[in-house]
């Protein structure tokens, strides 16, 4: 998708980008400083509504908080989704502060320490087991607290998902329990004082290919149907993962949600509902829920030319935007959609590179791009920044102040 398509999604007022119904310059003045992240609640609500309209009504929607743990975002979404997935004690506390029922919160991720597990068991959260060590810790916590922990088994499937930004299943993984080991783990769990609800399979993230996602969901249902024969009770929880991607570069095409939904309708109607009438199928989404509602805004502090190349130097950078800069040079870098937010109606005919304020050539936000002529104090906007932005970046690098975050 091209930058103008992202501008159109947010809308404009008097030649400026609009965020949350407010002209960008006015929003910047209200916040008082740049850089900042701004999240548009209208776009956030629209994405939830789009998913609700497309997915089967029986499918529950879970927000993977790791994508954006800003308390205002989590609080807003808690009233609109069915579940929240957390990956740390801090995220757990943030979720519980929303007032969501604890049994609607799941705790996933490898390396859960005993103290975190004890807190989860005490709160009544579903602990997604990723190893036999975690199972033993959950059982010990339940015994000491006099409670019956509720758990699900996170399964490392015997298949991989092609085309994902990160593969999180298939082959050797730190995530989940290998599918072939699950029956014996369930046998051990049946002798403990734990309530096994079902399974979680998350094979990959950031996938834009609907057929690949559909195939992964079909294989996940086949696999968990086989594993369900070893459950000590009925299958009540079936987390099919997510992995729905969003377009970051011009070559990326948006995910065909309708095609994914059509496959899910068939799976729910033909397989899950008849075989497992008490199971709640779950789709767990982070980036797809929040990613497109957010922008990162940074101000031009200098414009300079070096041997024929023009640089716009901004007061933000890779310390807030690691992914947009290319992840410390470890990935093939492509420009994220970027605009001069207070000049979106002007003709783009100025070839520049947008660089941050850090002392490294890796601090590059836009390389050899065409923008409307920008000068000092103009506002540079990077789109697709509602997920894995601030908390996924090296904010302490060089000691610059942390950016503001607002939900508008």
From TrEMBL:
Protein name, per record: Pyridoxal-dependent decarboxylase, exosortase A system-associated
Keyword field: Pyridoxal phosphate
Cofactor(s) needed by this chain: pyridoxal 5'-phosphate
Pfam families in the record: Orn_Arg_deC_N
Keyword Ribonucleoprotein attached: no
InterPro entries xrefs: Ala_racemase/Decarboxylase_C, DCO2ase_PEP1, De-COase2_CS, De-COase2_N, Orn/DAP/Arg_de-COase, PLP-binding_barrel
Domain Orn/DAP/Arg decarboxylase 2 N-terminal: residue ranges: 46-290
The organism's place on the tree of life at top rank: Bacteria
Organism the protein comes from: Microbacterium murale
């Amino acid at each position: 998708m091209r930058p103008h398509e992202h501008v159109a999604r947010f809308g404009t007022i008097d030649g400026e980008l609009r965020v949350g119904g407010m002209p960008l310059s006015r929003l910047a003045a209200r916040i008082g400083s740049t850089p900042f992240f701004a999240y548009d609640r209208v776009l956030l609500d629209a994405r939830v509504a789009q998913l609700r309209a497309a997915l089967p009504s029986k499918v529950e929607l879970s927000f993977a908080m790791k994508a954006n743990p800003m308390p205002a975002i989590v609080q807003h979404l808690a009233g609109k989704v069915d579940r929240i997935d957390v990956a740390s004690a801090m995220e757990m506390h943030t979720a519980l502060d929303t007032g969501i029922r604890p049994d609607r919160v799941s705790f996933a991720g490898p390396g859960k320490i005993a103290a975190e597990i004890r807190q989860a068991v005490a709160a009544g959260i579903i602990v997604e087991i990723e190893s036999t060590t975690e199972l033993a810790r959950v059982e010990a916590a339940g015994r000491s607290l006099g409670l019956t922990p509720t758990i699900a088994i996170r399964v490392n499937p015997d298949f991989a998902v092609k085309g994902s930004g990160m593969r999180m299943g298939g082959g050797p993984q730190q995530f989940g329990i290998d599918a072939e080991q699950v029956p014996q783990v369930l046998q051990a769990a049946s002798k403990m004082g734990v309530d096994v609800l079902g399974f979680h399979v998350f094979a990959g993230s950031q996938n834009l290919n609907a057929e690949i996602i559909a195939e992964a969901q079909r294989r996940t249902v086949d696999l968990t149907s086989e594993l369900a024969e070893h459950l000590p009770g009925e299958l009540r929880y079936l987390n099919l993962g997510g992995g729905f991607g969003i377009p970051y570069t011009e070559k990326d095409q948006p995910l065909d949600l309708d095609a994914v939904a059509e496959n899910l309708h068939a799976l729910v109607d033909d397989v899950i509902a008849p075989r497992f009438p008490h199971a709640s199928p779950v789709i767990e989404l982070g980036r797809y829920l929040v990613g497109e509602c957010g922008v990162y805004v940074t101000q031009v502090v200098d414009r300079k030319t070096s041997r024929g190349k023009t640089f716009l130097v901004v007061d933000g950078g890779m310390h807030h935007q690691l992914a947009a800069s290319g992840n410390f040079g470890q990935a093939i870098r492509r420009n994220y959609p970027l605009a001069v937010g207070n000049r979106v109606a002007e003709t783009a005919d100025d070839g520049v590179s947008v660089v941050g304020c850090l002392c490294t050539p890796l601090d590059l936000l836009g390389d050899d791009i065409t923008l409307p002529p920008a000068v000092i104090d103009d506002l540079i906007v990077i789109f697709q920044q509602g997920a894995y932005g601030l908390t996924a970046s090296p904010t302490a690098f060089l000691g610059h102040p942390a950016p503001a975050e607002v939900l508008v």
